């Protein structure tokens, strides 16, 4: 189904392009064949038709693409995507791209694939978890067929969409990606999407240069996000109909394409030209700036589509310019310029998606050049690190945050703030003197079943810990039982005191793969008082999060005055009791899908039973809402204000 969506989108896009330009294959060739004013008129017409088509089809709101899929497959997601709305928005998006709009085709391909998979799963009456996995399979198949990258597409779904590499997800997603790719090969061939010459791999001495490249090009990816957000704010402030805004966006793209034709469309052909070295540095710099403006304008004016391919082009331009500068300043490295362009592509993807594994593998699969693996690995690490230090969310999770409430984060932050090491301390740690023999240490491990023995100098001052894994390495060597002492096996480990907050405890756990940490006295870092285990930390965090949810779900009792309901908050969340909105009557919770529709959660339903009020929490997904119900809602103040009774 994913491959079918990819083939259909390409065929429809080529047909629309041929009708407008009499060129069906290469969008760049079509742009170059048009003279002024047609090169401006065609994208303008594309923007106008896009807006009019959305008005005619009435899809009921634009598609959020990958972020909407992420929401559907999340633990609180409904595992439902509106196929009817998706095909309407996707058709408009394909038309916009075919007529020169600066968006990628992968957006509608992935959305159609995932929505069709969700409809199939619902028709098969698959359990909720299976429906979520099948939606991810659809997205992976569509992405794989679009980019001829089965492993990269699977990583995209597991790293970005599901955020989970569990085997029960890995197997089906990889299978769907492979099948989608094989069918796509039958339609379009199996050649690499971006073939590059087989140049010698960069030397070890050049890898630090690629680390710098990743840090530099990360700013290009962030500039794309900033440009889109700025453009959205500008067009939002303009009081014009959608079709007028998208027409204006098309005019801007057309004027840029009149200057630099490579701006036209998603940028697939332009990436090939950059990788082949056919463009000079001045043209590449102009293309970088103009493509950034064109993509920002197309999306900001109200258009929809993918940003994957435009990001690849921006990264290729940034990497190519960096390569020119590197060759001028360090000619002795003898690195092929194509590796800098490929590295820029990976860096731009990593900086926008915060998914280094996906960025590495998918660019490698597009070029199929093994020499690029090491530089791509380096640039993705540094690009992701720089981007994460500058922005909290990826381009996808940021869209999710703007759509609703960060429900889990609020509770987790409250739990972390409420707990300290002293709340989780275990007294009576297993200790040994620093001069104890290895045999005595091994006996302690066997008797106590602990994972760490703490070493004390003179039986008082903490030196460090002996980890069970270290002891196992020498346990089978009988000659060492009497020759080695505890001090020979000790390792220094992070220490916490009773007042250390839980977030700091968790950070210190992440420094080393340890099952427990020593807790020392507040004013004496060498005095051991107990231990805190990783298992206890995780369990305590889970308990606090569940306790917070339980309190909210129970609504603090039936006698809370309504005027106080709006004042009860959890982080940035507000609780209110309201009658059932008219559009929810006769629907189930699953059908109403309040989080996706309004950014709110139904914590409980309060209904009259005789003289008593019964509270239903959690609310069954198949329970019908009736007019007599009162809903306990959780959401942002703006979302609840907008929810009409």
Brief synopsis:
By secondary structure, the chain is α+β, with helices and mostly antiparallel strands. Helix content is 60%, strand content 10%.
What does this structure look like?
There is one protein chain. The chain is of the alpha+beta class and 645 residues long. It is built from 28 helices and ten strands. It has helices spanning 2-21, 27-33, 38-57, 66-73, 83-98, 106-123, 128-147, 150-161, 167-188, 207-237, 242-259, 268-276, 281-300, 308-329, 337-353, 356-367, 373-390, 395-403, 407-418, 438-448, 468-475, 486-489, 502-511, 534-554, 562-565, 589-592, 594-598, 637-642; strands spanning 431-433, 452-457, 461-467, 516-521, 524-533, 569-570, 573-579, 600-609, 612-616, 630-635. The strands form three sheets. A five-stranded antiparallel sheet has the order 6-7-10-8-9. It is globular.
Q: What is the overall silhouette?
A: globular
The whole-angstrom Rg is 29 Å
Distance between the termini: 40 Å
Find the structural class using helix and strand composition: alpha+beta
Relative helix content: 55-70%
Query: How many distinct beta strands?
Result: 10
**Total of helices:** 28
Largest sheet: 5 strands, antiparallel
Spatial strand arrangement across the major sheet: 6-7-10-8-9
Mean pLDDT: 82
* Uncertain regions spanning at least 5 consecutive residues: 404-408, 553-572
Strand content: 5-15%
């Amino acid at each position: 189904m994913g491959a079918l969506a990819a083939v259909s989108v390409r065929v429809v896009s080529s047909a629309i392009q041929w009708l407008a330009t009499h060129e069906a294959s290469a969008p760049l060739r079509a742009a170059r064949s048009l003279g002024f004013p047609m090169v401006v008129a065609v994208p303008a017409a594309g923007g106008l038709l896009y807006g009019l088509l959305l008005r005619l089809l009435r899809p009921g709101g634009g598609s959020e693409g990958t972020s909407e899929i992420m929401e559907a497959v999340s633990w609180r997601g409904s595992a439902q995507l509106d196929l009817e709305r998706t095909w309407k928005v996707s058709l408009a998006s394909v038309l916009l791209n075919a007529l020169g709009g600066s968006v990628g085709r992968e957006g509608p391909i992935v959305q159609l694939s995932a929505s069709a998979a969700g409809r199939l799963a619902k028709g098969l009456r698959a359990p909720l978890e299976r429906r979520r996995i099948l939606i991810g399979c659809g997205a992976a198949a569509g992405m794989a067929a679009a980019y001829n990258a089965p492993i990269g597409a699977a990583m995209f779904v597991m790293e970005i969409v599901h955020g989970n590499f569990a085997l029960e997800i890995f197997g089906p997603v990889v299978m769907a990606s492979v099948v989608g790719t094989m069918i796509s090969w039958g339609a379009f061939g199996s050649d690499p999407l971006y073939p590059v010459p087989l140049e010698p791999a960069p030397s070890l001495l050049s890898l630090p240069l690629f680390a710098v490249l990743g840090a530099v090009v990360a700013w290009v990816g962030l500039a794309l996000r900033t440009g889109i957000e700025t453009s959205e704010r500008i067009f939002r402030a303009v009081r014009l109909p959608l079709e007028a805004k998208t027409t204006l966006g098309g005019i801007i793209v057309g004027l840029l394409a009149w200057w630099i034709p490579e701006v036209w469309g998603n940028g697939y052909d332009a990436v090939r030209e950059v990788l082949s070295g056919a463009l000079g540095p001045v043209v590449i710099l102009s293309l970088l700036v103009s493509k950034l403006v064109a993509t920002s304008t197309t999306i900001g004016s109200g258009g929809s589509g993918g940003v994957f391919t435009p990001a690849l082009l921006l990264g290729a331009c940034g990497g190519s310019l960096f390569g020119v500068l590197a060759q001028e300043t360090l000619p002795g490295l003898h690195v092929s310029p194509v590796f800098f362009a490929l590295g820029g592509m990976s860096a731009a993807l990593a900086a926008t998606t915060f998914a280094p594994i996906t960025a590495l593998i998918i660019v490698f699969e597009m070029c199929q050049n093994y020499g690029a693996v090491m530089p791509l690995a380096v640039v993705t690490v540094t690009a992701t690190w720089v981007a994460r230090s500058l922005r909290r969310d990826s381009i996808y999770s940021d869209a999710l945050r703007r759509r609703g409430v960060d429900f889990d984060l609020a509770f987790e932050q409250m739990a972390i703030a409420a707990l300290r090491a002293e709340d989780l301390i275990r007294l009576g740690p297993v200790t040994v003197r620093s001069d104890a023999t290895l045999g005595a240490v091994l006996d302690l491990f066997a008797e106590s079943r602990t994972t760490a023995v703490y070493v004390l100098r003179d039986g008082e001052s903490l030196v460090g810990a002996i980890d069970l894994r270290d002891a196992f390495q020498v346990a089978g060597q009988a000659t060492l039982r009497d020759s080695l002492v505890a001090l020979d096996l000790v390792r220094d480990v992070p220490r916490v005191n009773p007042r250390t907050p839980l977030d700091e405890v968790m950070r210190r756990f992440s420094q080393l793969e340890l099952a427990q940490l020593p807790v020392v006295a507040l004013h004496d870092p060498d005095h051991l008082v107990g231990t805190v285990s990783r298992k206890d930390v995780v369990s305590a965090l889970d308990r606090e999060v569940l306790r917070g949810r339980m309190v909210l779900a129970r609504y603090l009792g039936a006698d809370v005055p309504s005027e106080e309901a709006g004042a009860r908050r959890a982080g940035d969340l507000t609780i209110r009791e309201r009658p059932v909105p008219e559009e929810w009557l006769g629907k189930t919770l699953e059908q109403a899908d309040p989080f996706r529709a309004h950014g709110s959660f139904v914590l409980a339903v309060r209904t009259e039973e005789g003289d008593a009020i019964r509270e239903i929490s959690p609310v069954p997904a198949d329970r019908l809402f009736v007019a007599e119900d009162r809903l306990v809602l959780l959401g942002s103040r703006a979302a609840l204000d907008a929810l009409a009774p």
